[in-house]
Amino acid sequence: TGAFTYDPGFTSTAACESGLTFIDGDEGILLHRGYPIDQLAEKSNFIEVCHLLLHGELPTAAQYEKFERNITMHTMLHAQFDRFFEGFRRDAHPMAIMVGTVGALSAFYHDSLDINDPTQRYISAIRLIAKMPTIAARAFKYHIGQPFVSPRNDLNYAENFLRMCFAVPAEDYEVNPVLARAMDRIFILHADHEQNASTSTVRLAGSSGANPFACIAAGIACLWGPSHGGANEEALNMLKEIGTPENIPDFINGVKNRERRLMGFGHRVYKNYDPRAKVMQQSAKEVLAEVGDPNDPLLQVAQELERIALHDEYFIERKLYPNVDFYSGITLSAMGFPTTMFTVLFALARTVGWISQWQEMMEDPSQKIGRPRQLYTGPTRRDYVPISQRG
Ligand code: CMC
């Protein structure tokens, strides 16, 4: 009963008003607070983009300095946090560690947090942006069995993160500026993407008044799935499995026979080239020229796969184009990250989007607890039958 609109997957339901991110999927346009993603990826940096998303404007020089200082002040984890990492099996998937440990931040900051106070909400946002690289790097080091490297606040956000991931005690570590720039760009490209599944999860969790650390942990859980953030891991595994361009036609036939999906392709909103994929493809080439093989077989497979798919009736009819995850795996892999870390990096970067959306929701006077309805399909009313009389 009830006259509800049936909209599985929310393909045509706007659940909120938002001033953060605009997407025109038909034209392949993505703007953050009005600024095109390609301009931000080219000219800006991740800290500026965080300020833009969280505050609504690009920072002045003085605001930038203050904002960056504020973030670096919060990069450390409480010493007791070690226990959470040590509780995991040594081969735990880093995403499992992320869901658990980010949720555990609630236990460190929740009790003193009044989410109705804008200042305290803001400090939570800063804490999350600041601590995510530390937690992600720590999950990585734990996963590969190396000692943890503490944050260095004199480095920028991407440099510090790369150092925490790749520095080894007793060995010198110089951050490669090309890789740091590529890392920063990957963070920018993943910073926000309006009401995708994980962001909607964060908003839904937050609509009940839950604390922001728990809400972000919910977002990470949702991001993990292969249809969403987990696609970057799956996309690289797929490219490796295809191996060489000669195997592409067979693979494409399998996709068309619905045996599997072409990972890193297709998008709910983009029915055109994902503008993030264009930047990502360029970044992949730059990183491979620096540290890998510019003729990397996986890049060749990816480019050939893209060429064939974009000329194939199946993909043309359905308007399936490469998305952000198609080329990111090649880049991250060349940088030295195992596939298990790919979605973690996505979560790290998306945290600013999630928390900015949470903050926006908390400031919105029309905000209500999220409560979808359903079309009931079960039995009508019936009387209880004792077990001895059930046939
Ligand atoms: N490979 C093959 N066929 C596809 C693909 C694909 N990657 N994506 C969609 N289709 C087909 C689908 O089978 C359907 O065909 P038909 O109408 O004949 O049944 C049609 O295209 C529409 O697909 P849909 O599943 O109704 O579309 P959706 O909007 O529900 O799904 C998606 C969007 C991203 C889940 C989907 O395109 C997909 O599974 N892609 C692969 C996974 C992926 O790369 N995800 C990352 C998305 S971007 C980053 C992020 O969000 O985290």
What do these coordinates show?
With 391 residues, the chain is mainly α. The protein folds into two domains: 33-228 and 339-363, Citrate Synthase, domain 1 (Orthogonal Bundle); 231-335, Cytochrome p450-Terp, domain 2. Helices cover 54% and strands 3% of the residues. A three-stranded antiparallel sheet has the order 1-2-3. Strand 2 and strand 3 form a beta hairpin. The chain starts with 20 loop residues before the first strand and ends in a 28-residue tail after the last helix. The chain binds carboxymethyl coenzyme *A (CMC). Carboxymethyl coenzyme *A binds at residues 9, 196, 227-229, 231, 255, 261-268, 318, 320, 323-325. It holds the Pfam family Citrate_synt. Belongs to the citrate synthase family. Keywords: Acyltransferase, Membrane, Transferase, Transmembrane, Transmembrane helix, Tricarboxylic acid cycle. The chain crosses the membrane at residues 326-349.
